[in-house]
Amino acid sequence: MGAYRFQFRPVLSVVSVFALAILIALGFWQVRRLEWKQGLIAQVETRVNADPIPFAEAMRRAEAGENMEYTPVTISGRIDRDRVARVFGTYDGEPGVYVFSPIAGPSGEDVFVNEGFAPQTETGAVADLPDDEETTVTGLFRYAEQPTPPASWFQPEGKSAGGLWFVRDPAMFAAETGADAAPYYIDRFAVDGRDWPKGGTTRLDFNNRHLEYALTWFGLAATLIGVWIAFSLKKRDEDSNLKSRVD
Asked: Which domain holds residue 32?
């Protein structure tokens, strides 16, 4: 086996250094995203187990710029079953609807309550929901859904011919009847004795693959270094053979 010698290749080296810097930067960016996501998950887990606060307080703090997502809240009033909005969705892989009902907010505007999920086979149970005289709703404070690309490219907007909505946007629900709504809603906790709609269906599973992504970028960086070394090494036998042919 012949010996190797290092042969500096300027163009290859410049391109490799540039690409290596990008790959390493992407790797460290994913590390920072991992730290941020872990902090967010810990914050949410602590928040959802806190005692509920009045919805009016959560709304005031949200409008002041504080992130109130998943904060337990409570609100009292009469739920208007005549203006229920049904949003298409799935739960545990089963298609159905999420039932959004308005309740009077602190300033008279509608506050929509996500009462939970009902499968397609239980639409009758949703239609038979009684009007509440005066009730107290407890659940998690949520912001209106605002789909972003690329998901929004494939998600219908507005309302279907069958009367189903596709986006959890209280302003759109209220506008259909000429009312105003807060840009927030409540994911109601499960109600004792009620099968459908099923409350307490908020998904708190956060996609956290940043470590995997970081290892991928760092792995590509290491591979690039290996490729650069392989192309920069040259067998001494090749030099001898070339010299012999020239002679």
From this structure: 7-37+210-246
